[in-house]
Amino acid sequence: MKTLENVANMGHENILYCHDEATGLKAIVAVHDTTLGPAIGGTRFYNYDNEDEALYDVLRLSKGMTYKNAAAGLKIGGGKAVIIGDPKKIKTPELLKKYGEFVNRLNGSYYTAEDMNIGCDDIDHINSETPYCVGRPAVSGNPSPYTARGVYQGIRAAAKKVFGTDDLKGRTINVCGVGSVGMNLVRMLVEDGAIVTVADVYSPSVEKAVAEYGVQAVEVSTIHKLEADVFAPCAMGAIVSVDNAHEYNCKIIAGAANNVLVDDAAGDKLHELGTLYVPDYIVNAGGIINCSLEISEDGWNKERSEALVDKIYDNVTMVLEVAEEKNIPTYQAADEYAQSIITAAK
Hints:
Layout: H1 3-10, E1 14-20, E2 25-33, E3 39-40, E4 43-46, H2 51-71, E5 77-84, H3 87-90, H4 93-104, E6 110-111, H5 120-127, H6 144-163, E7 172-176, H7 180-191, E8 195-199, H8 203-213, E9 216-217, E10 228-233, E11 250-253, H9 264-273, E12 276-277, H10 280-283, H11 286-292, H12 302-310, H13 312-326, H14 330-345
Helix pairs in contact: 1-2, 2-14, 4-5, 6-7, 6-11, 6-12, 6-13, 11-12, 13-14
């Protein structure tokens, strides 16, 4: 990968490579844009196949955070970080504290938070070495329920657009990924009377969803092919491509995963097929909305956070209406909206 060329093309401000032999830490922090304020985005702990794959992921995720934060009306910029390795084997308090030291070197241009395989206890370890953390257990805590709440509101808004009602009773919804966010989403959908099917590579999570919520379970490789009103991707992104877009046997794609589209061409293909794609960073912004309140002027409180997260319904509605009026793919409508906010600020 031509690192500097990719960084320049995507508009990043700063890339920090972190390495510590004693703890086994290998991480990359990507600060994409701080026009609207300090960059905020979670840290993902994942066993990437190689460092190029990790860099590709963090560059895309951090740019997505810039657009997500802008579109959500937050006065913060976009950033993201990845720690490379198997968290079940190498994640230790010492590694996380060392990572916190690296975050601290950015002097507040980047605030980190929970993401895949990073929980509240981990944030405590990182926070012991740097004040530049949000989603702290003693303040707003785990952002997953708020991410799920926002996705739930986004699905309702999309259903209103497609079916004429946002009542999800009897709607068939397939959820791929039942970690912390996906499980909360399943709970809300079932409480609403939706007919839910789940899949996850981690079988204990599937077993929990089946036992607690009475949902059906299928294999990860087939869930997107099952006929449904809504497909909700809540695991890894980059799953919809030009080549497989026709396999998604649903009316709506809306979920918590970041960077669902492999590239813009995949979004164009969904538009051509008539599948309504709800742009991921519009619908999954609940977690960052919740966390960002920690450094806002008024501070965090539960009621204010929930009220702001519920506005994702309106944001999704607006993006879908703009896309329809201009006859453009939904991802393009979202990008234009987010970019207009950043350009105006500049």
